[in-house]
Amino acid sequence: MTRIKVFRPAVVASILLAFASLTAAFAQEPTPAPAPQEDETLVVATRVLPPFIIKEGDTYTGFSAQLWQELASRSGVSFRWQETANVKEILAAVASGEAQVGIAAISVTSEREQQFDFSQPMFESGMQVMVPVDADESFTPLTVLSYFTSGAMPYLLGILALLILVPGHLVWWAERNHKESPFSHHYMPGIFHAMGWALSAAAGQQNDNPRSRLGRVTSIAAVFVSLLFLTYWQAELTSSFTVQQLQGGIQGPEDLPGKRVGTTAGSTSSKWSSEHQTRLTEYQTIAQAFEALEKGQLDAVVFDAPVLLYHAATAGQGRVRVVGPVFRKENYGILFPRGSDAPRKVNLRKRVNEALLKMREDGTYDRLYQRWFAAAE
Questions:
Q1: DSSP category for residue 53
Q2: Residue 339, CB-side half-sphere exposure with 13 Å CA sphere
Q3: 21-45 residue pLDDT tens
Q4: CB–CB of 108/72 below 8 Å?
Q5: Distance of alpha carbon 219 from alpha carbon 163, whole angstroms
Q6: How is residue 151 annotated by DSSP?
Q7: How far apart, in whole angstroms, are the C-alpha atoms of residue 225 and residue 163?
Q8: What's domain 141-247's architecture?
Q9: Range 219-240 average pLDDT
Q10: Of 129, 172, 197, 365, which one is least surrounded by beta carbons within 10 A?
Q11: pTM
Q12: What is the CATH number of domain 131-135+250-329?
């Protein structure tokens, strides 16, 4: 006889409860992982650098400030500014986590790319040279003295001295005993009178005519030689002054080796200047370099071209000028900590890049650029 196994009610109830729980688990929608939380307020490191960052009271304006304000608005983030002295301090603030973003006029370099993340280029720039507006434009006593102590001028001055001393002595010696001679028969003051005559002869004029035959021959020879000499002297002097005016002083980066050059600490312009044998002085801010230039403590300032052009057209107008071409072209970018694209983090750089592209597409970027740089162009 077959025995039928009967399940107890408690066992049956347990099985049914387990089955119901399993069914409910499969029927329920999966719960997504919580989204990464971003800080309520980003810290944005910057520095005062007209026309990119301009401080007006407690607010910041300028090209970079307004660009970031628009990008932050389109990216849906709030922020507060943290002012630093220079680009070196901006890099340090972002590297340490003290700031999450850096913006001003930060050049993208291969060295920095290894330590930070950058946005797409926000501005195309390069370096340029600024000098005092009166550099090598006026003839000071020292400038004139330098013309007569360089090149062929010392030799020409020596020839002129001979054209005065030799004919002067010959004429005095020949005329000293002539009864109608205008020159004294005494060496003093007769020789001074004779040298004055020789100087007049070198200039093409003779106030006193010698009476002796030797004196007259010397006079004719002195006038002839002096005319040839003065023609050559005039050509040499004109050439020297023209070359000094056109080529003298600092006209571009190729003239900077050996010159007193100033720029900001930790900048790409500082690195370039040190690599090109300039007498470099680093300042905490570019404003300090501008002040040193105007005080005559520097021969030139090397820095980002837009900053130099803006200063020359505004605060430095009439006192400084920008010379030479733009060299070492660079792109500026917005600075982010290294690894900002990691999946576990809020990808702020991606959102900023998208907003920057949209600003270029809808004309917002061009309008902002024209506002701050159209006049400088």
A1: B
A2: 6
A3: 544 443 443 333 333 345 569 999 9
A4: no
A5: 11
A6: T
A7: 8
A8: Orthogonal Bundle (1.10)
A9: 71
A10: 365
A11: 0.61
A12: 3.40.190.10
